Amino acid sequence: MIDKNKVIALVLISALAILLYLVNIPKDCGSDDSCFSKYQYEIVGKKNDNCIIEVTLISLSANQPADMKQALEGKSMKCAITRETLKSKTLNEIEDLNDNCTGQLKEALLQITIDNMYKIIIKNLGSIAADLNETTYINTIQD
Fold first, then answer.
1. Coil vs helix vs strand at 23
2. 44 and 29 Cβ atoms separated by less than 8 Å
3. Degrees to nearest 5, angle at CA 84 with 92 and 94
4. H or E element, residue 88
């Protein structure tokens, strides 16, 4: 005879597994605007051989944390890009774009990078200290 409790448990586990699979399937964004960050680019002037372009982050993609959205959305930076570079590349293709920029958006991005690096260092500090103590202990024994 079939045990009803086992059947119910098996159905529940199967349903949960299917649900977890469906929730974790990567989303195919296609042209879904919520998947992408939106920027506004405006040429605001020129200085020597550079075009001055103001880059404003309008909105981050929907999957970004709320605190990051708050820190970055609406902020802008001004970038000085040579006319030659702009003739050969789009703004998205310029690898070191931030090196040519100043402003609140750049500062906020740098702050987020520093905060993340700090978290990684603190997270790994215990193992680094343990390795250092072990090395010091071994060197003391060998001396």
1. helix
2. no
3. 20
4. helix 83-88
Residue (of 6, 104, 118) closest to 55 by Cα position = 104
pLDDT at 42: 92
Distance of CA 116 to the CA centre of its chain: 10
Phi first, then psi: give them for residue 15, nearest 5 degrees.
Answer: -65, -40
Domain hosting residue 56, numbered range: 4-142
Domain count for the chain, please give it.
1
Between CA 60 and CA 75 the distance in angstroms is 11
Alpha-carbon distance of 64 to 83, in angstroms, equals 33
Residue type, 50: N
The tokens for 25 are: 């399937």
Task: Give pLDDT tens digits for 9-59.
Answer: 666 676 666 655 555 555 566 666 666 789 999 999 999 999 999 999 998
More confident residue, 41 or 141: 41
Residues in contact with 68: Cβ distance below 8 Å, sequence separation at least 6, in sequence order:
60, 112
CA distance 88 to 126: 48
Query: Residue 76 belongs to what H/E stretch?
Result: strand 76-82
Whole-model pTM above 0.70?
A: no
